[in-house]
Amino acid sequence: MSIAKKAVHGIAWVTLTALLIRIFETIAQLVLARLLDPADFGLIAIGLLAINTMSIFRDMGFGAALIHRKEDPDYIAANTSFILIPIFATILLVIAYFSAPYMAVFFDNSEVSPIIRVLALTFLISSFGTVPSILLEKELEFKKKVIPETLPRLGYAIVAILFAFYGYGVWSLVYGQITSAVLTTALIWIVSDWRPHLMFDKNVTKELFKYGKHILGASIIIFLITNVDDALVGRVLGIEELGFYTLAYTISNLPATQITHLIGRVMFPTYSKLQHDIDKLKSIYLKSITFISMLSIPTSIGILLIAPSFITFILGEKWTPAIPALQILCFYGLFRSIAATSGSLFQAIGKPIVLMKTSIMQLVLMLLLFPVFYRYGITGISVAVTIPLFIITLLQLHIITTVLKISLNDIASILAFNFSSAFFMVIWFVVADSVLLSTLNEKPIIKMSSLIITSVVIYFLSIYILNKKSLEELKTMFKSI
Is residue 90 part of a domain? Predict the structure, then answer.
């Protein structure tokens, strides 16, 4: 099977996995919400925040380095990583254990300390499954990862619900997390053919660190980028405003989190396999940005258009202050979606330092704009995070045209076709909303559903008319699934 076909298969299996996980998580959340108190979810959120912060250092960028590495004779790099990653995890476990009381003081809640200490066990448990999981991704064997990634979520749901039913409170959620980590690691070893050997190479270690340090640096900066705005809003504007902003950010970033992230998992190992073949790399990249923009552009613009109705009639009037921020952040979600196509490519061709440097630039621009815009509330903060990302997206696309030796017009024409199709979708939405479906004003849910369905049809009909060639290429690719 060709690399392109394996990539398409990978996207399909990753999408299926994400769908199953979302189903399990939604059902579990609904049941647990009935059995537990809001305070229990608050405690686990604080615990996971501490753990997720430290997890940036979980593999020190070795996972990405293994995928990028073109050849690994006798699995020397894999075996070396298998020795080092549990060592990193043990260090994190010790740090978490001794820092937990201080985190409890910071959050002014003594219950946080034991929760963080127990959750930190997931560092060590998961570390033993990291290398075989990465090797499956490297070979685009995403089909084999469906069970190891979905069954643990079901295990989490069962364990958490059972313990919650018997009155264990927040600890039911903690035990669910531990169960998920154990099942994930165990199932990865069942589906993986790779088995480790006691093998360590100092030179390989240096190579992995040399590449991984840039991935780690970029991860830290990206973590700051995606969290510094929340910190500012919560600290300066208050918890209620943070609630509005978090909702707006989550919904507006659906194109980046639900489309680009899924495809990015597949494209990084795909690009890595083609890193020395510029012509194929160029072809796959252009197809990737075509497909991602074809989905992200209408999704972002659609969210912007439907936001007032969705917020008012689905979430309730109390959430209406989030609407302006949500509509501005729709552009942030779109730019982030397109920019993510660059990140995977920079990692694959051995230039993660580009990703780190551009991320630093984005963070600096955000920090410079925050003092100017925070006086306008969460709407101003939304502008302050969107402008830097727009600038960095253009910069990254320019760098890619240089690396792949393609014209910026090639990328611009792809985006222009999809924006043109979205323009017709907007025209239809405005006309249908104000004229054609005015009789459904008393039935907002039916009207909103009709607008969404017909707008999607108009968009893809416009794509078919304006850019039939790209649509046919993508259709041909997916026939191989």
Answer: yes
Widest Cα–Cα separation across the chain: 73
Asked whether residue 465 is domain-assigned, the answer is: no
Distance of alpha carbon 296 from alpha carbon 21, whole angstroms: 22
**Domain presence at residue 288:** no
Q: Is the pLDDT of residue 257 over 70?
A: no
Whether 467 is covered by a domain: the verdict is no
Give the three-state DSSP class for 63.
Answer: helix
The rounded distance, in Å, linking the Cα atoms of 207 and 353 is 14
Q: Which two tokens stand for residue 65?
A: 């380095």
How many Cα atoms are found within 13 Å in the side-chain-facing hemisphere of 365? 16
Q: What is the pTM of this model?
A: 0.71
**How many whole angstroms separate alpha carbon 195 and alpha carbon 79?**
9
204 or 195, greater pLDDT: 195
Q: Name the token pair of 32.
A: 């647990």
How many domains is the chain partitioned into structurally?
1
Distance CA 10, CA 262 (A): 10
Smallest Cα–Cα separation from 291: which of 478, 34, 35? 478
Question: In angstroms, rounded to a whole number, what is the distance separating the alpha carbons of residues 391 and 397?
Answer: 10
Q: Is 147 exposed, middle or buried (0-12, 13-18, 19+ CB in 10 A)?
A: middle
> Which residue segment(s) compose the domain that 64 sits in?
1-200
* Better pLDDT: 341 or 466: 341
pLDDT in tens, 445-463: 777 778 888 888 888 888 7
DSSP secondary structure code for residue 107 in this structure: T
DSSP 3-state of 131: helix
